[in-house]
Amino acid sequence: MCYSFSASKDQEVCALCVAENTSCSQSPTGYTSFWNDCISSGLRGGILIELAMRGRISLEPPTMRKKRLLDRKVLLKSDSPTGDVLLDETLKHIKATEPTETVQTWIELLTGETWNPFKLQYQLRNVRERIAKNLVEKGILTTEKQNFLLFDMTTHPVTNTTEKQRLVKKLQDSVLERWVNDPQRMDRRTLALLVLAHSSDVLENVFSSLTDDKYDVAMNRAKDLVELDPEVEGTKHNATEMIWAVLAAFNKS
């Protein structure tokens, strides 16, 4: 299960990408896996999408030389604080960066995947731990110490199962009962959730409670969605370019 940073219940744009510290990627015993390498980049992609949805950043307009989503730079639209530490920290980095960078480069920089020592300052550190702490304070997670072989590890079991069930059902319904077969007709935050869940490798967990028949339908529809051409979908009327740019970045990585 996931939550956007400080957004309301209906604004969980980063939902499934924080599954490492919530319930979508939990083991049957109720504890999360710490070995999903996709989560870190998924989180950073979710942060960029959330900032775009809040009107803080956008992609530069397409030109003859820069038509592709991954060629266009991320531009600052507003530096007004969002009230969320992680979003505002990212916003500060984007504002201070000259020349501007692309979506794919920003995901790499925010994750710390750069060989340039001068760019390491842009890495967002301890993101999962910071989100988990916030969710513990809200009573959604709790904190426990578990012994793994020769060392102790802090885990964050979910205590608020109602939120878990609500978010999982929202994703399941989006590809089953409420399936519209057109991303432009989907709620854009639901679309973002599906893209981020796919990019963070937690979709199977989200659909795991479904019957075999429904599971196959859900996975096939989600697969069809994320295999659409981001360049085509991003140019359509009312498309949220940042969602498709993030998907394009993950497809390339």
TrEMBL record:
Chief location bin: Golgi
GO molecular function: phosphatidylinositol-4-phosphate binding
Pfam family, one: GPP34
PANTHER family noted in UniProt: GOLGI PHOSPHOPROTEIN 3-LIKE, TRANS-GOLGI PROTEIN GMX33
Protein name, as recorded: Golgi phosphoprotein 3 like
Gene Ontology process terms (BP): Golgi organization; Golgi to plasma membrane protein transport; Golgi vesicle budding; retrograde vesicle-mediated transport, Golgi to endoplasmic reticulum
Cellular component annotations (GO), alphabetically ordered: cytosol; Golgi cisterna membrane; Golgi membrane; trans-Golgi network
Organism: Marmota marmota marmota (Alpine marmot)
Protein family (similarity comment): Belongs to the GOLPH3/VPS74 family.
Keyword terms of this UniProt record: Golgi apparatus, Lipid-binding, Membrane
Membrane topology qualifier: Peripheral membrane protein
Subcellular location: Golgi apparatus, Golgi stack membrane; Golgi apparatus, trans-Golgi network membrane
